[in-house]
Amino acid sequence: MTSNPLAVIDISKPQEEITPGLLAAAVKQGFLFVDGHGIPKDQVDKLFELSKEYFTTTPEKEKLKYLINPDNNIGYTHFGSEQLDPRKTKDFKEGYNFGYIDFETGEFNQSKQDYYRSKNKDIKEDVQNPIPPYFKQNSQLLSDTMIRLHQIAREIMKLIAISLNIENQQFFTEKLRPKEPNGSIFRILRYPLIRNDGNDINSTDEDLLSIRAGAHTDYGALTLLFQKEAQQGLQLQLDEDNPDEWLNVPYIKSAHKDMAAPLVVNFGDLLNFWTQGVLKSTTHRVKFSPGETRNSDRYSIVFFVHPENDARLEPVPSDIVRKAANGEDIPQMTALEHLQQRLKETYNW
Ligand SMILES: O=C(O)CCC(=O)C(=O)O
Ligand SMILES: [Fe+2]
Best of 188, 234, 270, 281 to mutate for ligand 1, by most ligand atoms within 8 A of CB? Predict the structure, then answer.
């Protein structure tokens, strides 16, 4: 069995039992496994099948019809369209991002007008976010998963509030309401085994060939990820003073019968900023190591959770956070402003 350097927190257990371990993991490693999430193995297996089918059988021309819209982050991302680490090469991966999600009804890729309807915002120019037909046929599975992942994210954030000793246990969750417009993205990703883009293949730099998602931190509040057995590759950089040391995230099984593997959960820049650095936003990447026994592409299913667009990132009423702040206030901004700032940096818009 592979050894596991990360904490496993079972959120189906009593709160008092799990919050100390959760806080320690969030502060020290910024990454942990969440078990007891209640998502059946069968559901996640089906999602991975759907993802594989989409990426490997849809003609490129068809995928490109639904190319990502940089304004809302919804759509298909082609090989080489992202470069998470500006010092390295382009990321050799493809993905599809679902957004404008109503986490109560499960509708996704709504038009801009529909998405903002509940806010009575006057959207003059509508933007359509058409769903590729293959996903439309499987929308129930996708919707059910998005709704459940959002509930799990809220459960985790409530536990974080408790572990930070915030009197109002809903401090974070009341800014994660299911129907309020927000920047959350549900994403399926594929990292092909062989890098076959002529551009970089002639390189002799081992890193250039094997790094599939460059070193980066996530932007949002937290990220929930499913990976598959024997498709390893996710690595963490725990110590910034040792930038060449990377910790492999293993695949582990759930302790609950017939349930999907524990989610890999990590915290993003927004939450790090909001908690004055208390919750760690850890640098990570995807790298295929030379000589490893891998015989297939890597697939991952990722849910990037963002607070409501209008949520003000006001000081967190926790003594732990106050102490870390050392009397300094964070600059006031909304969740949307924070996201836009980070996206600009990645995509050079
Ligand atoms: O696919 C993975 O394992 C990691 C993905 C990731 O870090 C990201 O897309 O931000
Ligand atoms: Fe990431």
Answer: 234
In DSSP terms, 185 is beta-bridged to: 304
Ligand nearest to the CA of 212: 1
Nearest CA to ligand 1 atom 3: 234
Paired tokens of 153: 């994210």
Atom of ligand 1 nearest to the CA of 298: 1
Among protein residues, the one whose CA lies closest to atom 10 of ligand 1: 218
Tell me, what's the ipTM?
0.98
- Tell me, in angstroms, the distance from the centre of ligand 1 to residue 233's CA: 10
Closest CA relative to residue 150, chosen from 110, 182, 118? 182
pTM, full prediction: 0.94
Tens place of pLDDT per residue across the chain (349 aa): 568 999 999 999 999 999 999 999 999 999 999 999 999 999 999 999 999 999 999 999 999 999 999 889 999 999 877 777 776 667 788 999 999 999 999 999 999 999 998 676 677 788 999 999 999 999 999 999 999 999 999 999 999 999 999 999 999 999 999 999 999 999 999 998 877 665 555 556 666 668 778 889 999 999 999 999 989 899 999 888 898 899 999 999 999 999 999 999 999 999 999 999 999 999 999 988 765 656 788 999 999 999 999 999 999 999 999 999 998 888 899 999 998 888 777 665 5
Which residues contact residue 348 at a Cβ distance below 8 angstroms, ignoring those fewer than 6 apart? Answer: none
- How many whole angstroms from 210 Cα to the centroid of ligand 2? 17
**Which are the contacts of 141, defined by CB distance < 8 A and separation ≥ 6?**
43, 46, 47, 50
Going by alpha carbons, the residue nearest to atom 1 of ligand 1 is 300
* Span from the CA of 110 to the centroid of ligand 1 (angstroms): 24
Q: How far apart are CA 59 and CA 76, in angstroms?
A: 13
Q: Which CATH fold would you assign to the domain 8-347? A: Jelly Rolls (2.60.120)
Q: How far is the CA of 166 from the centre of ligand 1 (A)?
A: 30
